[in-house]
Amino acid sequence: MQTVTAAGLxxxxxxxxxxxxxxxxxxxxxxxxxxxxxxxxxxxxxxxxGPVRAVYEAGPTGFGLYRAALEAGIAIEVCAPxxxxxxxxxxxxxxxxxxxxxxxLLLAGQLKAVAVPDARTEAARELARAxxxxxxxxxxxxxxxxxxxxxxGQVYSDGSTWGSARHRQWLAARAFAxxxxxxxxxxxxAHVDALTHRKAVxxxxxxxxxxxxxxxxxxxxxxxxxxxxxxxxxMLHLELGADWQRFATPARLMSWLGLTxxxxxxxESRTQGAITKTGSMLARRLLVEAAWHYGRPPxxxxxxxxxxxxxxxxxxxxxxxxxxxxxxVHHRLRERGKPANVATVACARELAGFLWAATxx
Length: 361
Known about the structure:
Structural class: alpha/beta
Largest sheet: 5 strands, mixed
Number of domains: 3
Radius of gyration: 25 Å
Helix content: 40-55%
Order of helices and strands: EEEHEHEHHHHHHHEEHHHH
Distance between the termini: 35 Å
Number of strands: 7
Number of helices: 13
């Protein structure tokens, strides 16, 4: 489809700057909207000479404008802000300039579009991220409780701590001489209990979502791998927009996850650095946590065997190859003197490739 009008939109919560370039005449039209509501913006785009192509940067305003424009028959993209080319010598930045820059880069084909999930997948992903937010809050709340006890010389030394009934009974029996310290402790412990309950409720809801026919086939395949159970599989699947097929090769998935080493090459010099850490931080953390399991010798326990029951033989074989391959990688790197976390990240990178293969079987 030949483009007649290319429009760039610089979208913010309280304002949107638009610039439309007429390819035939070269004329640039500008418009400022007092918010990010899709209606007026889509209406203005529809009035431009067609066919119209539009673009805006991914950000906190979400994908409402994208979906509204598609419903109106307007071709629109959401581009990755980190991939937008900018001149090193540019010293003036404004919303008007940004909108026009997006329009011109769209015409030049120099923007990288992001994958936009459907509305239901996005809602489920928000729930998964809410679960992870509660996990982080709970970890902080537990630390505050344990550190207050430590300041008063009370240390639990009877087995595992958080999650065991015995430890919870020990916490409930703690007492302080000063009523103010007692009150602070009671509040902190109540906060831990509340967050624990919220986390369990969200985990249960995500587990039920994982059985939905929209996501269950892929989640079941991911659960065939060591270190990946229902919650991890579901959250990984959602972080990828429930679409593994958009990655043509495992290397592209690894790169998107930010698990590939950074590179600086100039002339004869070539230097690899730390991993890029692009893409989804949550997906990357889940993969690294799962990769820790591959430091142990390969085996299939009762729980893993149960998760693999009824799955395609090709997927089970891929999961078994992953155990052997990642175990070798982990120990080879450790023998070379690499830190444990470096070896684990390397395993996480290769684990992503095995997961890609399992979803493409």
